Predict the structure.
Amino acid sequence: IPRGIKRDILSAFYSLKIGHGYLNAYLKRLNRRDSDLCSCGRPQTAEHLLLYC
């Protein structure tokens, strides 16, 4: 990890890397969302968000 990266950027990076954060698939597991779906109709995971949507 390069020096000088802000903490909030690192936090967002690590949240995506481990599949947590403000993703519907994760929030549904915590009973914070009714659905795990993205607006395109597929489960909103980090992989989906970054690679397919």
In short: The radius of gyration is 13 Å. The mean pLDDT is 91. Residues 7-52 form one domain.
